[in-house]
Specification:
Blueprint (H helix, E strand, L loop, with lengths): L1 H12 L18 H14 L3 E4 L2 E3 L2 E3 L2 E3 L3 H4 L1 H4 E2 L2 E2 L1 E4 L1 H6 L9 E6 L6 E3 L2 E7 L9 H11 L9 H13 L3 H10 L5 H15 L1 H9 L26
Parallel strand pairs: 8-10
Antiparallel strand pairs: 1-2, 3-4, 5-6, 7-8, 9-10
Helix pairs in contact: 9-10
Length: about 240
C-alpha cells in the first residue's frame, strides 16, 4: 500500500505530455516488479496510456479527443542518451515545421549515425535515416535543412520549385558561420544535395563561398529536378535540369 500511494503521488507530478518508464519514478529497485505491474494495470484502466513496452504517459483529454505527446517526447530515448545526442528529428514533421508542407503523416523519421530497424511508438512508425555527420545541438538545424534538400522530391503536398524557394529563403536567414558549416556538412551528402546547396550559396554569398561544393562535383553529372530558370537562374552552370 505504501508503494501504491507513492507511485500515485509521483504520477500526479508528471505532466500529460511527459513519457516515462518505471525508472523515472525513482523508487527502490526492489519494488520495480510491483511498479511495472501497477503501471500496466493503470494503463488497462485508462489512467495511463502505453506507447511501447515499458513506456507510458498520462493522456490528456480535449474537445478533439485524447492528445498525444509531442513527437520529441514520444521518441526522446532515441534522440538523447546520457546527455549526448544520438539522433534528431527529420523528415515529414520537420518539413512541416519548416513551412515546406502542411502534411504530417503517422511516420516519425530520425537521423542517426547507426543503421536501425523500424520501431512502433503508439500510432507512429519510427524510421531511421543514416546520417554520417556528427549529431550535435548546433548541427541539428543545419542537418535538417540538408535533409530537406536531400528529400526534396519526396516532400508531400507541394512542388519541387516551391520547396526549393522555401529552403533557399531559410538558408539565406542563416548567419555567415552557419552557412560555412552547412557547406562543410554537405560534403557527406549525395552530389545532388551539394549541387542544389551550391546554387543557393552562390546566389546568396557569391561563388567563392560555393566553390568547395562546386569542386566536389563530377563535371559531367547532370541532376534532373525539373526546376525552371526563373526559380533557379544558375541551374545550367550547376548542371541541374
Amino acid at each position: 500500500m505504501i508503494i501504491t500511494r507513492e507511485v500515485q503521488k509521483r504520477l500526479e507530478d508528471f505532466q500529460p505530455d511527459y513519457v516515462f518508464t518505471y525508472r523515472d519514478l525513482n523508487l527502490p529497485a526492489e519494488t520495480s516488479e510491483s511498479i511495472i505491474k501497477m503501471l500496466n494495470r493503470l494503463a488497462g484502466e485508462g489512467y495511463l496510456a502505453k506507447i511501447s513496452k515499458g513506456r507510458f504517459y498520462k493522456p490528456k483529454k480535449s474537445v478533439f479527443g485524447t492528445l498525444k505527446p509531442r513527437q520529441e517526447e514520444l521518441v526522446k530515448d532515441l534522440l538523447e542518451k546520457n546527455g549526448k545526442f544520438i539522433g534528431y528529428l527529420t523528415g515529414y514533421s520537420v518539413f512541416n515545421r519548416l513551412g515546406l508542407t502542411t502534411q504530417v503523416p503517422n511516420i516519425i523519421q530520425i537521423g542517426t549515425n547507426q543503421r536501425r530497424n523500424k520501431k512502433q511508438r503508439d500510432i507512429f512508425t519510427v524510421c531511421f535515416v543514416l546520417q554520417p555527420n556528427p549529431i550535435t545541438k548546433d548541427n541539428i538545424p543545419l542537418l535538417q535543412l540538408l535533409d530537406a534538400i536531400r528529400f526534396i522530391k519526396e516532400i508531400p503536398d507541394t512542388t519541387i520549385e516551391a520547396s526549393y524557394r522555401r529552403i533557399a529563403f531559410l538558408v539565406g536567414e542563416l548567419g555567415r558561420r552557419e552557412k560555412e558549416k552547412m557547406v562543410a556538412l554537405a560534403e557527406a551528402y549525395p552530389p545532388m544535395v551539394r549541387a542544389l546547396l551550391g546554387t543557393i550559396i552562390e546566389n546568396d554569398c557569391g561563388m567563392a563561398k560555393a566553390q568547395p561544393l562546386w569542386d566536389s562535383l563530377n563535371p559531367v553529372t547532370v541532376y534532373k529536378l525539373g526546376i525552371n530558370e526563373d526559380t533557379l537562374p544558375n541551374k545550367k552552370k550547376w548542371r541541374i535540369e
